[in-house]
Amino acid sequence: LTPKGAVLTKIYAESDLLLSELISSDLLKQYSPADLVGLLSALVYDGRGERSRSPRLPKTLDASIPMVMKVWLNIVKLEEEYGITPQKEPNFDLAWSAYRWANGHSLQTILRETEITVGDFVRAIRQIIDLLGQLLNANPQLAPTVKEAVKRIDRGVIAYSALVA
Question: What percent of the chain stands above pLDDT 70?
Answer without folding.
Answer: 96
